Each structure stands twice: as structure tokens, then as C-alpha cells.
Amino acid sequence: MRDLFKGELLRFRGWAIAGAVxxxxxxxxxxRVVDLAQQPLLVYRVFGxxxxxxxxxxxxxxxxxxxxxxxWLNLLHRPLPGWRIAASLLGAGAVLLxxxxxxxxxxxxxxxxxxxxRVVDLxxxLFPLAALLIATCGYLAGAYCMLGGRRHSTCALVFLVLxxxxxxxxxxxxxxxxxxxxxxxxxxxxxxxxxLSAPPRSLAATVITALPLQMGVYLLALLLGFGMxxxxxxxxxxxxxxxxxxPGGHNExxxxxxxxxxxxxxxxxxxxxxxxxxxxxxxxEVQPIGSQLAxxxxxxxxxxAAAAQMEFDxxxxxxxxxxxxxxxxxxxxxxxxxxxxxxxxxxxxxAAFPAPAQAAGSLPALPRGDGALIAGNTLYHYxxxxxxxxxxxxxxASEILAGVxxxxxxxxxxxxxxxxxxxxxxxxxxxALLSPRQRLPIPGRSGDLRDIDLIELVDGYLxxxxxxxxxxxxTGVAPYQSVLWLDDSGHVTEVAHRAIxxxxxALYRYKAWWxxxxxxxxxxxxxxxxxxxxxxxxxxxxxxxxxxQLFAGALMLLSLLAAIWLCxxxxxxxxxxxxxxxxxxxxxxxxxxxxxLLYPAGEYATYxxxxxxxxx
Amino acid sequence: xxxxxxWWAVPCALVLALASGVLxxxxxxxxxxxxxxxxxxxxxxxxxxxxxxxxxxxxxxxSVSLSPDGRSVAWLRVQGNQRSVWLQSTAGGTARQLLSRxxxxxxxxxxxxxxxxxxxxxxxxxxxxxxxxxxxxxxALGGGERRELRAVDPLRDAAVVISxxxxxxxxxxxxxxxxxxxxxxxxxxxxxxxxxxxxxxxFDPRGRLAFLERVEHEDLVIHRVDANGSLHEVLRxxxxxxxxxxPVTAPDGELLLRTDHGGNLLDLARLDALGTLHxxxxxxxxxxxxxxxxxxxxxxxxxxxxxRSSTSAQRGLDTQTQQAVEAIARHFPQRDLDIQVGRGAQAxxxxxxxxPTLQAGRWHLYEPxxxxxxxxxxxxxxxxxxxxxxxxxxxxxxxxxxxxSWTASDGMRLHGFLLLPPxxxxxxxxxxxxxxxxxxxxxxxxxxxxxxxxxxxxxAVFQPQFRGxxxxxxxxxxxxxxxxxxxxxxxxxxxxxxxxxAQGIGDAQRVGIAGASFGGYSTLLGVTFQPxxxxxxxxxxxxxDFGWDLRWVSRSNEALNLSRYIPFExxxxxxxxxxxxxxxxxRLHAQSPLANAARMRxxxxxxxxxxxxxxxxxxxxxxxxxxxxxERDVSLLVxxxxxxxxxxxxxxxxxxxxxxxxxxRHLGGVAAAPPDAAVREYLKKNLRLSGKDLRGE
Lengths: 616, 697
Known about the structure:
Chain B: This is Putative peptidase. By secondary structure, chain A is of the alpha+beta class.
């Protein structure tokens, strides 16, 4: 086993060393140009994709070189159990990837930590491990693609998709990667047998293989749907791409200007002031209210959707402040010479921020160099002159502060639950915490909310909320628009409620659900494993329409009937047959497809041939 | 029920008769003076029509300043966005450029005449003026510490006095204020630190801080500073009494200040050791507030006082200076003069010449020893839109500002200006009333482009200084008593207009009203409540509900800018505009154009700015929406990028064009020349409502 391991290491050492050097050069170059620890998610995804690809190619090549029948038999014809042979090969592959993928990352992290003033948190030290896990997953997927049955071996790629779309946060991402790695390793071990084309026999082996296969079929179905959507778009009748969107639908609402949207809402209003408001809106610049958070940051998350917001430059001091998750403070370094400048916390004693803080741009009447920071439920005023962060707006602890927008002479603060109105005078005078003059609850869920449009009235505000974000899929609320009048005394009245039509039929919207409700649930669970629910992304999906439920039920029934027919033609034991029938009834078409892929017709023929002499 | 004794009736009747007799005599004298002035205007040759662009010009020379030794004059030259610093010797020679680019808005000389101090919003820069080294930043300005230049140190050779806020140690703790002396190299020395904001200061002749003025709640309180630095209250200025300390005390150590404490007009006064105020100088005409006070550049003592309300007048504080001032006034009759004094052997004085018929300023050197005047510098004009140089309009073609007074129906004497097209019969002229903005402001006796433009288009222009206006004393301001709806203040404007018509000035059937800010509000009131008098209105950045707009401002950052020391609400409350009083607010609303939109039936042009921090755009839009719903003849232009004042040359020309067109259609002045493509494009973009006039109906 040791010799095999060493042999494999020696066989690929040149490639591994060359890969490591190239990798190090690329990272080294980039580290000179940018701060690699503070890159947007896309950059890390590109790197992750390269690691996966490298691992995949290694797995395909290495196992491909052994897969030819004679070579394969020679490999297995050793005084060792099959799993130890597999472990030798796979262990060598993992070590090679550690050298090529993980080691350069570790070296660069060491460089940044030891030779620059840049922030290197504990989470950054986990990057090498993540690189290794991702690359090894790719490697194992490649190995399985080569060793598994030709009809179904590509199902291992499902785990690579999982790595890309998992919503796990922080170090727990590594657990998801490790679980994927373990499953892939199990799949490779199941496939590591003399007859590579034979289907799995044991229950465990069948489950280990069939589940990814069913998920793969499910994903293929989604991919097929996506392909058909492309054809729809090319045809020119897709609601997203029609020059004139369907009237009354959510695309039409989303494409409206803020003014048009407000007028559309007021068109259905029966309020006595509505005619006057319509005239005023027609004369006004309607102000959109936006969120400044792409996603709510979570402490110790490995990557962040808007990493650029975790740092900001003070052009007066010529200092870059970068948020450190370890210190829960900003660490500053000079833009002129890169040397450390100091630390920025809350108040005069630089206390730790209670949540990861993000830059939120500047605000009116702030001196040059000053800016706003958002952390959790609090907005801070960054004072350049004293390099302090002073809390100015604090929302209730249960809310997330998502953005601040100057409107006229006021500041409008958006949380996941409400709009708050603050007087501009209070914001400009003094350093004390501000008290909101008014609060306007959001008439819906934050995740569904796509557009907030506002105009100032003499006697308050008129605010339109459009809930259309996920109207094209099953997670979103049935689209609607609500126009609220917040009068000067703080009283809120809904003056218009407009139901917005769907632009897509129900089967389109629920295309992720009806192919297999069970696998959809599994997909949701897998993606949400170790995830933290972002309060800004919470939606209120309606119940699944009955006709869609009936359609999914019909598909499951069809799968069951087809499975009964198919099982009669495959060499399966009765428990296995019953299990497959149950799977096809519960999982639906993907289970049926996996049954068909795992047990080819040849098996049935062999089975029949075997039966015939016995019955003769 | 108790009644007055009957014998009171006799003295009361006598007093009333005497008073009315005095008033009638005043009115007769005013009327005679007015007719004389009108006759002079009528006898002038008519002026040609000038293009709109001739009135839309920028001056290239700014902040002209004579060195204390009288040997050099420095100024800022403005070309578009670029400013440069220029210097010229008073002994002759040509001007030379000292600095090709600066952000400075104002320049000052250091006391030793060796440094030019360039003040920009962000910093104070010292520029060597006599070839020495060491130019550099003296101090940063603005910022979180709100540091500001208070004065060039009047007694040190090269230093300034600044104030700044000390940031609070924590949000819970209070801020503090500092007064500092900063030398030309940026070395700071603390003069005083206080928990209260510092509004003024005065040094004794030896340079020691002798008096401080603090903001204490709603009062300005003057303290004497003893040798230990302790403060002792000597005078409390309440209810918006003005108490502006001169930076240097009198030679005997007594405080000099400009104040209306205990009186009506803003005068120069002395505060003796016992805390008693003694008036040193007041308006010889007994009418106006002291406008400016020139200090001796060497010892900081007051030299020349100026008044600018109905007329411009100067007075020297000592005999020698007064003789020189009289000589200058004789040389430049009917001009508004800005005199700067140089000290030392052969030192020249600088005399700035301005006036309503002088579109570009002129500066002259005056030699007190010989009494000789030498032209020194003429302002240059550039067209705002093209940036091309332009000759000033000839003074003979511009209207003089005729000061006039009349007695209101409640007996109060009011003032204003009248501008007439030269050579025209005033009785046949259409009349445009242009109330000023504010309302706590006043029209000055100098050149104004809007008034001159209207005059050139054939309109008589009336600028009423209604009660509430500044410049005529404290009583004049307070006489408004917060009656800014369709009440006493508006009545002043209406009565002033009727007074003019009764004097045979203006055609009563062709009267319009136009104004900006409060003038715009008054315009809306005029076309709403006095439609029989005002046939058409042009309202620029008008609050449609004055009370509501003040409350809106009180919630904004602008409130901090408007009330320098006294809290905005307290300031308004003292002026009988209590934002917290529902009755006051309800009265203002009930009398507002917004609440009476249905009564507005005259053609109206509204112009507003989207970034206006003084007049809420939403108020204008709500009013316009109401008028639109009522199908009134209203036009609305909104420039989203404009503030309370629109600096965009294109916007100014568009505003002139629209005004000209509307007034021509309804009052019959000169027809507007068609706008060029750029103005048409601007109008297309920003005109949100087009009235009948603009629709060609």
C-alpha cells in the first residue's frame, strides 16, 4: 500500500510541483495588486472552480489510466483489500492536491499576515483547508466519473454543484465540503470493484449511488427546463424579454419608473385625496428607497457577497479601513505606504462593533472624509478627524438596518421590517443618538419587497411597496403593491392595494417542485444545511396551487406504474423491488430514471437467460 | 363699568391731530420728492432694448482689498470656476498674478501688509505678498470642528482669530467651544475655552482678551474677562437684540459694539465700566441701521460708518476722516461707496464705487494729502452662458432707484424703491411689484439685474420694504407681529402699490406681481387675495404655506444655517411666529395660498428648485397639483438640480424669458425674443406644467 501511495506521488510530483509554483505565482502577483483576503464572492468562486477543475482532471486522468480492463485487473490483483488500494491512490491524489492547491494559499496567507498590515482573520486561515476540500471533491468526482457505470457516473458532479450553491455560513461551510467529500469517497469506494460496470449490490451501496443519481436527474430536468427557457427567450415571447411586458404583470411593474409605479398604485385608490395625489405624483420626482446591504453579514463568514463594503477609504487621512471579524473592529492601514494606521471601534474607547460593520457611503451635511457605517441594527457616523465611529441611529434589537436614504431634508432608514424617518437637523447637529419622528411598518416580507417608492406630501409621505422579487418562482409571495399614506402625526393608512398578475403559468413557477417534491425538499435542506436565515431574504410564499399538486401527484403515480413495469424486467430481489417502487412513488420521475440508469436492460436479459434453464 | 374721564378726549384729540398733521406733512413732502424724481426720469432719453444676456452677467473682480499700509491692492479674478489672486501697487505699474488658481472666496491682508490670507470653505492659506518665503496653510476650516475664521488679528502683525467646536468625548457628553489665535505659520494659542458657544470677542489695545460674548440659552451675553480669565456679565442682549462686538476696545478699555440694545436702530455704542450703553453714532437721517463700519487697520478703532437702506451714506468718526469722506462723496454723488483706508506716509485709500446704474464696479485711489482721485481698477463682465467678455450696460440706459415712503393705513411709515424706464410716461406704464425675499431682508440701493431687466422691458418696478424688512431698525422688523398671511404685511405691499397708482405711477389695469422666496409667497397671496389689483403673478421658489414651510425648515439642517446663534424656534417665536402654537400655525395655514387655491384665478408662473433647502419643493408641487386639478392657468418649472438660488445661467435665462413672456401677454410690456435652442431644450426638460400662455391659447 505504501509503495502504491509513493508510486502515485512520484508519478504526479512534477505536475503537482508545477501546479503549485504556477498557483503561487498567480496568487503572489494578485496579492501585490489587491488584498486577496477581501475579495468579492465571485473571485473566490472562480478560484474554487479552478481547484475543482484541477481535481477533476487529476481524478479522470489517474483513474482513466487504470480503467482499461487489464490494467484494472493488475491494479486489483495485489495482496491487498480493494479499499486499501483505493485509499493509496486517493490518498496520493489528495496529497498532490494539498501541495498544488492548498499550500500556495497557506503561503500567501502567511505573507499577508506577516509582511503586510492587511487584515488576516482566523477565517482566512481556513482558506487553505477549503481549497483542499474543494479540490479533493473535484478529484473524487473525477475518479467516480471514470470508475462508475458509464450510464450514471456523472452523477458525482452533483456534489460539485452543491459546493457552488450551498448557503452554509462560516467555518461550517467546511463541514458541508467535508460531508460532500465523504460521500464522494464512499461512492468511489463502492465503485472500486473488479467489475466496474456492475450495479451496486448492497443496500448501502445502492443508496450511496442512487441518491446523487436521482438528484442529478432532478438537476438535469431543471437544466432541461432552463434550456427550454432559452429557446423561449430566443423566440421573443418570454415575459422578461418582451419589448412590452404582459399588462398587469409583475414584469410590467418592475419595468415601470418609480413615478409610473406610484401612479399605477394610486389608480386603484378610492381615497378622497387620490386625484390630488395623482396630480402631485405626475409633477414630482418619485424617490426610490433602496437597501445598501447586498446581504446581512455574519461574523466569521468565509466570504461575503459585498466584500467591498467591508472596507472603505478615508480620502482625507489616506487610510483604508478593513473590518476584522476577529477583532470586530476596523483595522486601518495607510494607502501611501501600506503601514498600519490603527484600529477603529465604537466610541472613544474603540469598543467592538456588536455585529460585522459595513460602509454605507456618505450622507448629506457630513464633513469631507466622514461617512456612514452599518452594523446590525445600528448606523454609525464615521468621524474622519477623530477616527471614531459614533452610533447615531439604533433600531429595535430585533431588526436589521438595511440602508439609509436622504429624502428631502430627512433621512429615511430602511430595516427588514419598517421605514423610519429622521429629521435632517438632528442628524447634522451633535453626536447623540437620533430618535425617529415616524415609523412606517413594511406591509409584507422583506425578501419579497422589490421596490419602495416615496413622495413627500405637505401632510406626510406617500409610500408604495411592490412585492414582486420572487414572483417568477415558488418562494415568492403572490405579487402585489401597497400604497401607504403616513400622515404628519404618524398615522398610517393603506390608500391603495393592487394585486399584480403573474407573468408565468403555475407550472413554470413551480418547475423546481413538481418534478419531485421530495427531491425539492432535499435540495432545500441541503442548500440550507448550516445556513443562517438572512432576515432581509425572508419571504411569504403562498400555498402550492392544487393543480400543481395534482400534476406532481400524477407524475409520481406515473413513475410508480412505470417502475412496476420496469422492475418486472430487471433482476432485483423482492425487497429491492419494493424499495424501488416506494422510491419511485415518493421521489417520482428522478427515481424512475435512476432505476433505469442503474439497471440496464442487459441485466434483465441476463437474468431472463439465467432463469430459462432452471425452469426448463 | 369704568370709563375714561371725559377731559382725556381733548389731549387725545390734540395728539391725534398733531400726529396726523405730521404724517400728512411727511406724505406731502414724500410725494413732492417722488414727483421730482419721476420727472427727472421722464426727462431722460429712452433706453434701447438690450438682449436678455446683457443682464445675465458675472463680475470678474471680487474681494478687492487694500493693504493696511495702503501700498498694494489685491483681488480675486474669477473666470468660470477658476479663481486667481492678483496684486497691484498703488504707486503705479501693472497688476501681476500672484497665484494662478485658488479656491478662495475671500481675501484679507495681515495687519503688517506682508501676507494675503485666502479664505476658502476648507482652509485659510497665507500667501506671501512681498516676496518672502513661507506661504502655506494657516489652518483648516470647516470640518467636524466647524472651525471658522473670526477676524484677522487687529493688533498682531500676522495672526488670525478663529473659533472651533471641541468634539464631545462621548455622545453623552457636551461639546465645548474654543477661541484661538493662530499665527501665520499655523501655531495655535488658546484664548478661551467655554461650554457655551462664543459669538464675539474684543481685545484691549494691548492685545489681551477683554470681552467675550456667549450664547446663553436664547440670549447673547457679554462678559468682561478679568486678569485671571474669569468672566463677569456686563450686558445681556435678549429678544434678538443685536450686540456685535468690535474686535478692539476703545483706548480706555471700554467695549465698542454695534447694537440696538435699548433702542430701535443699530448704532455704534460704547459700554462704560458701569454697564451703561452710550450711543456714539446713529443714522443722521434717523431711519436706517448701521450697515458697515470700517476699522483702522493699525489700531482697530472705528473710522467710517456706512448706512444703506433707502440711500447710501457714509460718515467719518473724526473730523479729518469726515472731511475726507465728504470729499469722496462729493466726487461720487449718488453712489454707494466702499471706502478702505491705508495708514502710513503716502498711504492711499481705495474707493469702491457702486450704484443702481453701475452694472460693473469701479475702484479709485484717493490720496488724502492731495485730495487727488486716480482710476485704479474697473470690474470686467462676462456673459454667464458663454463666458465671453461683455461691456457693461451704459448707466444712461439703466434705471435709478428712487427711494419712496408712504404711510400705511395703521399710520406706520413704510419705505420702498421705484424704478422707471427712462423717458417714459409713468402713468401709462404697466407696473410690476417685486417684494423681496426673506422676509427678514431688504432691497438695497444698488444694481439688481431682475429689476433692471423688467424696467428695460417697459415696466415700472416697485420694490416695497414692507414691515418685517431689515435695515430700518428693530421696530420695523417687529412691527410685522407674525402677520405674514393675508394680513398686515401683505396689506403693506398692497397699500404701497395703491399709493403709487394714486401718485399717477403705473396703469392700475396692468399691475403684476413677481418675487422670489418670501417675495414669491407674497406673489401667491397677491394673485389669490387681491386679484383685482394683481393681474398676473410670477412666483419663484415660493412657499405655498409660510407657516408649514417654516416648520419644515425647523426640522432640517437649514435651520442651523439660518439661526446663527439663537435656536431657530426661539428666533421665530420672538418674531411672533411660534411654531409650537397651533393657533398661529392654523391662522397662517388658513390664510395661505395652499389652503385657498380655489381662489387663485390669475395666470401664474411657478418656478422651483428640487434641491431647495429653504422652500420645500413638495409644498410647491402640492400647490401646483391643486391648481392643475382646479384647471387654473398655471405654469410650473422645476429644476431638479437647483437650490433656493439657481446658479445655472441657462436656468436664469429661461426664468427671464418665461417672466418676460407672461408679463408681456398680460400686462403688455415688450414682447419676448424667442429663446435659443439651449433654452428651449432646458424648458422642454424642466417645464412640468404649461399654462395657456405657453400653450399659445
